[in-house]
Design a protein that fits this description.
This protein has 5 helices and 4 strands; from the N terminus they run βααααββαβ. It is mostly helical and 148 residues long. The strands form 2 sheets. A two-stranded antiparallel ribbon has the order 1-4. It has a two-stranded antiparallel sheet with strand order 2-3. A hairpin with an 8-residue loop joins β2 and β3. The longest helix has 28 residues. It is elongated and about 60 Å long.
Length: 148
């Protein structure tokens, strides 16, 4: 079970609030940085996340639309619209499930989608390596929940 080190907000220290602020500000800065990298290659941040969700999915057949909706924390119809726009850019392709249920549509990256994602991912991994010391400094049982 995960437990927080404090039972109420009154017991948080100034240092804990400062660490939470540092973490939240750093997270927002990373997200804004990521949005700018995606825009530089002509994508929205959600299109970038879609490409990553397709490529990072464990099934070699590709994720279904329902699985993508789960990864993106959005609704089925919103993912369909996102796929439509990204497909028009030539970055993703749909394929019907083979077998009993041909209603299931799976997604895969095109060659252009693979190349775009590889470029974005390389820069993101560099940025995460740069941020690792900052995030490691925040790893304190008083701020981050520990399994117990």
């Amino acid at each position: 079970m995960t437990q927080w080190s404090t039972s109420s907000a009154e017991t948080l220290t100034d240092q804990e609030y400062s660490r939470l602020l540092t973490f939240r500000a750093g997270l927002r800065q990373l997200l804004r940085w990521s949005e700018r990298r995606a825009a530089e290659v002509g994508l929205t941040d959600t299109q970038h996340q879609l490409l990553l969700a397709i490529r990072g999915h464990c099934d070699p057949g590709g994720p279904s639309i329902a699985e993508l909706a789960g990864y993106l924390c959005t609704r089925h119809h919103s993912v369909v619209q996102l796929i439509d726009r990204t497909e028009q850019l030539g970055l993703v392709a749909r394929k019907r499930e083979q077998g009993n249920d041909r209603r299931i549509v799976r997604l895969m990256l095109t060659e252009a989608g693979e190349e775009t994602l590889a470029s974005l991912s390389a820069t993101h991994l560099e940025e995460l390596r740069r941020l690792t010391p900052v995030l490691s400094a925040l790893d304190d049982a008083t701020v981050i929940p520990q399994a117990g």
